[in-house]
Write a structure and sequence with these properties.
Elements (H helix, E strand, L loop, with lengths): L1 H28 L5 E3 L2 E10 L2 E8 L2 E8 L2 E8 L1 H16 L6 H13 L5
Antiparallel strand pairs: 1-2, 2-3, 3-4, 4-5
Length: about 120
């Protein structure tokens, strides 16, 4: 009986350690965390499929939405400074309310703005 309890304890400890490591590893490059290398900063990333993700990248004053897949990297949209400032204002307003605008919600707003008539 003590061997069984010891085995259960070891399995539980391994599961807890695996969970903590996964949380730590995901937090290092997860959403909301900035990854900076030189003059380029990855502001957000969102997986959209197997080996595919969207990246919001800032290079100097320019912010770009990039699609990354096995075949390469594609520029999907250049985000204007006006839109970026609007996101920051909305994020600040929502943080005051205890909420935060997700990358997915912000992307949806940009795509809706692009569909409005009268916009080139």
């Amino acid at each position: 009986m003590p061997e069984l309890l010891w085995s259960l304890f070891v399995v539980a400890a391994v599961l807890v350690l695996a969970y903590l490591f996964t949380k730590y590893a995901a937090g290092r490059l997860g959403n909301g965390l900035r990854f900076r290398k030189g003059k380029m900063t990855i502001l957000e990333q969102m997986p959209v499929g197997r080996d595919q993700k969207l990246l919001l990248v800032q290079i100097g004053d320019t912010v770009c939405l990039l699609g990354v897949a096995q075949g390469g990297i594609t520029l999907l949209e250049k985000i204007s400074q006006e839109t970026l400032d609007q996101w920051k204002q909305e994020e600040a307003g929502q943080e005051e309310l205890g909420q935060k605008l997700s990358f997915q919600e912000a992307l949806k707003k940009v795509l809706e703005q692009r569909k409005k008539p009268g916009r080139p």
